[in-house]
From TrEMBL:
<feature type="region of interest" description="Disordered">
    <location>
        <begin position="1"/>
        <end position="47"/>
    </location>
</feature>
<feature type="domain" description="Fatty acid desaturase N-terminal">
    <location>
        <begin position="77"/>
        <end position="114"/>
    </location>
</feature>
<feature type="domain" description="Fatty acid desaturase">
    <location>
        <begin position="138"/>
        <end position="228"/>
    </location>
</feature>
<dbReference type="InterPro" id="IPR021863">
    <property type="entry name" value="FAS_N"/>
</dbReference>
<dbReference type="InterPro" id="IPR005804">
    <property type="entry name" value="FA_desaturase_dom"/>
</dbReference>
<dbReference type="GO" id="GO:0016717">
    <property type="term" value="F:oxidoreductase activity, acting on paired donors, with oxidation of a pair of donors resulting in the reduction of molecular oxygen to two molecules of water"/>
</dbReference>
<comment type="pathway">
    <text>Lipid metabolism.</text>
</comment>
<comment type="similarity">
    <text>Belongs to the fatty acid desaturase type 1 family.</text>
</comment>
<dbReference type="Pfam" id="PF00487">
    <property type="entry name" value="FA_desaturase"/>
</dbReference>
<protein>
    <recommendedName>
        <fullName>Fatty acid desaturase domain-containing protein</fullName>
    </recommendedName>
</protein>
<keyword id="KW-0560">Oxidoreductase</keyword>
<dbReference type="GO" id="GO:0006629">
    <property type="term" value="P:lipid metabolic process"/>
</dbReference>
<dbReference type="GO" id="GO:0016020">
    <property type="term" value="C:membrane"/>
</dbReference>
<keyword id="KW-0472">Membrane</keyword>
<dbReference type="Pfam" id="PF11960">
    <property type="entry name" value="DUF3474"/>
</dbReference>
<feature type="compositionally biased region" description="Low complexity">
    <location>
        <begin position="19"/>
        <end position="47"/>
    </location>
</feature>
<dbReference type="InterPro" id="IPR012171">
    <property type="entry name" value="Fatty_acid_desaturase"/>
</dbReference>
Length: 339
């Protein structure tokens, strides 16, 4: 049997509709099965073939459609409100305690300091002669510090949401110190992250994780990218490449270029977005002139930059006096785990 490496002939994506008048399937709903069972045949699909072409989309719906989930089961919009959800949560879950919050900070800092002391005191050539074993132990150190650093990162995140304590001053002070120590511009990210929560799911105003539009996804280039992703997404090389890329440049790229965020900066009310586009260096979390922020925020952006400058100076001092490789193991590798 002969084989070929030729790409399959490209076909235009077709639209698959479910109408109100469609005959319901007699197959049992996959939603009622166990997690180990395969989903039943579905009129819905997560592949690109379930999307209409750009022309179909521009012409508008041709028939009344009902919502279905990815298994083809009918989906109905929930009729409960945000207030109903909040009322269902026990009241004590909304109570904030500065003392309890500070105890969490002290716990994480103590764990990080204790881990640093133990490894630098006992994981030495004199105590662990085997280089391979010592390298394995220090690898474990970077992972542990990454876990504790993530705990500190999350606490600073809660400070930004004002859920750390009832005091805004305490929240912002703790958040600024904690995030600055982890090379996060506290106020800059707090502001953009707050806007993200206000516009989550909005295709034009969300600040991060903005999906492609239907036209972009069904375009010729979108189709090619989709097919390539379908072909390679489960291969080890592709997975490793995406993981390494995300760990090394994903977070810094977002801070520096607003990657995955909206690009509608021309709409900025104060006119700061004129001529600004993601990726050209003018839309980031470090410049007070960035269209991500209003003029009233500019002093806070500078304060965030000051925190990063202080941390960067300390890291440079440590690297110069104790060795750059030591700095990499002590801080840089754990920093990547935090990311």
């Amino acid at each position: 049997m002969s084989t070929t490496t030729a790409l399959p002939q490209r076909r235009a994506p077709m639209q698959r509709n479910i109408t109100v008048d469609s005959v319901p399937s007699t197959s049992p709903s996959s939603a009622a099965g166990s997690p180990n069972e395969s989903p039943v045949a579905s009129a819905s699909s997560t592949s690109l073939s379930s999307l209409g072409s750009v022309e179909d989309f521009q012409q508008g719906p041709k028939q009344q459609q009902q919502l279905v989930d990815t298994y083809g089961n009918e989906f109905k919009l929930p009729d409960y409100t945000i207030k109903d959800i909040r009322d269902a949560i026990p009241k004590h879950c909304f109570e904030r305690s500065g003392l309890r919050g500070l105890s969490y900070v002290a716990r994480d800092v103590a764990l990080m300091a204790g881990t640093f002391y133990l490894f630098n005191t006992y994981c030495t050539p004199a105590n662990v002669p085997s280089y391979a074993l010592r390298a394995a132990l220090w690898t474990g150190y970077t992972f542990l510090q990454g876990l504790f650093g993530t705990g500190l990162w999350v606490l600073a995140h809660e400070c930004g949401h004002q859920s750390f304590s009832p005091s805004k001053t305490l929240n912002d002070t703790v958040g600024w110190f904690a995030h600055s120590a982890l090379l996060v511009p506290y106020f800059s990210w707090k502001i953009s992250h707050g806007k993200h929560h206000k516009a989550t799911g909005n295709m034009e105003r969300d600040m991060v994780f903005l999906p492609r539009t239907r036209e972009e996804h069904a375009s010729r280039m979108g189709y090619v990218l989709h097919e390539m992703h379908e072909l390679m997404e489960e291969t080890p090389l592709y997975t490793a490449t995406m993981l390494i890329g995300q760990q090394l440049i994903g977070w810094p790229w977002y801070l520096l270029g607003n990657v995955t965020g909206h690009d509608q900066h021309e709409r900025q009310a104060e006119g700061k977005g004129k001529g600004r586009k993601n990726g050209n260096g003018s839309v980031n979390h470090f410049l007070p002139s960035s269209p991500l922020y209003e003029r009233k925020d500019e002093k806070l952006i500078l304060l965030s930059d000051l925190g990063l400058l202080i941390t960067g100076s300390i890291l440079a001092f440590v690297g110069k006096n104790f060795g750059w490789w030591n700095l990499t193991v002590w801080y840089i590798f754990p920093y990547l785990w935090v990311n």
